[in-house]
Amino acid sequence: MKTLLTASIAVIASLSFNVSAADIAAGKAKAATCAACHGANGISAIPMYPNLAGQKAEYMVKQLKAFKSGERKDPVMTAMAMPLSEEDMINVSAYFASLK
Known about the structure:
mainly alpha, globular
């Protein structure tokens, strides 16, 4: 039981991201291309595109990584995620998380 608990904690820790060290200004600059689909302030005017404002940063980083790795499939989002570094993903996600 103790081994299972230790393993579970290790997995959870590996999934966490250091969004507290994010550069929101850099994220805002990098997110300029996101505005076409997700809106200038993270609120999409097009129903098929999700709102990003106020989403949890950790969730958005996870999704961007999934698009980049091919785990999650969408041709547009895969193309958008491919050039992003992990730092870019953290910054962009922190920016959108900071919006109301």
